[in-house]
Amino acid sequence: MNWNSGGVPLDLIRPKLLVIGYGRHGKDTVSDILCKEMDLNYQSSSEFCAGHVMFPTLSKKYGYKTVEECYNDRHNHRQEWYEMISSYCGSDLARLGREIFEKFDIYCGLRNKREWSSMKNENVYDYAIWVDRSDYLPPEDETSNSMKPWMADFWIDNNGTLADLEFNVRTLIKNRLV
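Structure (tokenized):
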């Protein structure tokens, strides 16, 4: 059996991780690597919300036939998704986070700073990880993502190759998460 530095068996550690960053900066890829390396699970918040929040309304508006079709078109309506998810949470700003963490170890893709603040205050997650690919992609407009790098506990550089990213995630796991 493997143990962490605090004497806890590694197979008992299932941290709740929040993976954040701007659109298309590699959050899902980092989440995939974390799942593989730590035996965790996740579903992107966009995929989760497509079925739970977006499809019932947007299928009528845009004529989507399936949840998958709605999900695949999300990049064309980022601000609308942001606003609808904010409305879904209403005054219970940690609602979506709690719902995702009831089923998954990783919440990938939080985009609202007010929801982040509420989740942090309620200890809904253990660590937030920022994924950065700013050497290649610009920051996202605040109308669809109000998160900032300083909100994370850890920062992952995704400006190199996939092998570099995998190394960076494994280093974070080894030195900070277990």
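The first strand starts at residue 17 and ends at 21. DSSP finds seven helices and five strands in the chain.
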